[in-house]
């Protein structure tokens, strides 16, 4: 186990010696902007996004990877940011809920979640939106099984799953340009 951690550190930390004795310096592209910051090796990506970078849209609920509320995209793929160390994001591109939308308009998945009541308390919503958006980037015409697979790790206490399904199908249609209304 120690060898794996050493390999990860050596591979992902190009700024050897930077930071303090207790931190490492990381360079991560977050929402299209290169960010350089110091973090303790034990800091999770979720903690760094929220505490260090001030991106509080990423929610920490279970803090052990069992609810997926903290889902962000690492190089376009969904990951639970509470289960990923910030050091593992070094040199990668991270997209959070704050970076999903265009400057002047919400992402189609965000709009569809609103239009189809796919949220209630909203705590799990950012993670669900990120997973559904990632699905639609890789599958323009998903069926219900593909959507269920994409959201299978998400835990929504309010039970909005049927609305999430409807919203994702609507967003897919809009993104394909075949929505009629």
TrEMBL record:
It comes from the Bacteria. The keyword Lipid metabolism does not apply. Residues 24-100 form the 2Fe-2S ferredoxin-type domain. PROSITE patterns: 2FE2S_FER_2 (PS51085). Keywords: 2Fe-2S, Iron, Iron-sulfur, Metal-binding, Oxidoreductase. Pfam families: Fer2, Fer2_2. This is (2Fe-2S)-binding protein.
